[in-house]
Design a protein that fits this description.
By secondary structure, the protein is of the alpha/beta class. It contains twelve helices and 13 strands. Strand 1 and strand 2 form a beta hairpin. The longest helix is centred in the C-terminal third of the chain and has 22 residues.
């Protein structure tokens, strides 16, 4: 039996994580091997419950172990433990990863993407928070079905996130009437941002998704200079004008030494619900091409569909409202790809900092 277990471990040492390009044993992902007769059960701990290639890992493990003499069956049992990025420790206590969701301009659906990514990660089993720092136009309360809510406070006077759809939510919209405008100068905005970062009892969260306002202003600067970030997601639509402004957001994160985890193309192709024909209303594939040109990851494209608007107007992001629809599948794929990119940063399977250093050259003026 001991010899068979040793053979199983040797076989697992030849199975690579498809994204990290390192074997499961050296990554400490094999947490147990149980053998009963010829039946082998292997416990694998993934680096995120939203692993985009779990099925591939299961297939590769089963294929390798099944070739061992004496093995009659192979069962893979998955667990998950999100690992923190040591380079960004010292941020918000209890938060393993802080992810900024940004856009160069308004109107590209950034808050919709942020909310759906957060809910999608929670649906995969992650512990998720959603912080709405779009102080001038907070829309997360509407999208998440939390209008006219007021968070409770803990014994230290910190706001307690409101739990909704498996996500802990905090928004400036909770503290100001929806019809009132916030008319303040930059230093006051910075103070608001720091308060939201310091005076919220987030508890233990694998991911904190931060919905930023559009542009490259005081709020973005304060966030990135106040706490260490795991990275940023840039949302754009396919047309040239949106992509042009999106590169400014990428340039800003480069200057602030925040890695780009990927781009999301929102409002991509529209599929007619009657005939099924697709129409590129805003174009299609522009973000994918831009990501390839800038050598940054592309996380996915979200279709243009009225169902997304109807769902968030009802206070339930479409990834949860219509979980079997094409829109939900697109958001969940993007969320899994995002989680995968973070795991790659943690375990060094992909040197994103090196990639971003190369990308910086794209923003230098020609000699």
């Amino acid at each position: 039996m001991a010899d068979l277990k040793a053979e199983v471990m040797s076989a697992l040492a030849t199975v690579n994580d498809p994204e990290l390009h390192r074997d499961l044993v050296s990554l400490n992902m094999v947490k147990g091997v149980a053998i009963a007769g010829g039946a082998v059960t292997i416990d694998i701990e993934l680096t995120t419950p939203a692993c985009p290639l779990k099925a591939q890992i299961e297939k590769d493990v089963a294929t390798k172990v099944a070739t061992i003499a004496g093995v009659s069956s192979v069962k893979v049992v998955f667990g998950a433990q999100v690992r923190a990025l040591s380079a960004v420790q010292g941020g918000i206590p209890g938060i393993k990863h802080i992810i900024a969701v940004a856009s160069g301009k308004g109107g590209v659906g950034k808050s919709t993407v942020a909310a759906n990514l957060a809910v999608a990660l929670a649906m995969e089993g992650a512990k998720v928070g959603l912080l709405d720092l779009d102080l001038m136009g907070p829309s997360i309360p509407l999208i998440m079905g939390l209008k006219n809510q007021w968070p409770e406070s803990d014994a230290q006077g910190r706001a307690i996130p409101i739990e909704r759809l498996g996500v802990g939510v905090i928004s400036f919209g909770f503290f100001q009437p929806a019809q009132d405008a916030l008319v303040v100068r930059g230093p006051i905005l910075a103070g608001y941002v720091k308060k939201f970062l310091q005076d919220v009892a987030w508890g233990e969260r694998d991911y904190l998704v931060v919905d930023l306002p559009p542009g490259t202003g005081d709020i973005q600067l304060t966030l990135c200079q106040t706490i260490p970030m795991s990275g940023a997601v840039v949302v754009t639509t396919p047309q040239d004008v949106a992509l042009l402004v999106a590169t400014k957001a990428i340039s800003m994160f480069n200057q602030l030494k925040v890695s780009i985890l990927g781009m999301v193309e929102n409002m991509s192709q529209f599929a007619c619900p009657h005939c099924g024909k697709t129409t590129d209303i805003f174009g299609h594939g522009g973000a994918r091409d831009a990501a390839a040109r800038m050598k940054i990851p592309f996380l996915g494209e979200i279709p243009l569909d009225p169902a997304i608007r109807h769902a968030e107007n009802d206070g339930v992001p479409v990834v949860r409202a219509l979980p079997d629809g094409a829109q939900a599948r697109a958001f969940r794929e993007a969320a899994r790809n995002l989680a995968g990119r973070i795991s790659m940063r943690v375990l060094g399977g992909d040197d994103l900092d090196r990639v971003m250093a190369k990308a910086k050259g794209l923003f230098r003026a020609p000699a």
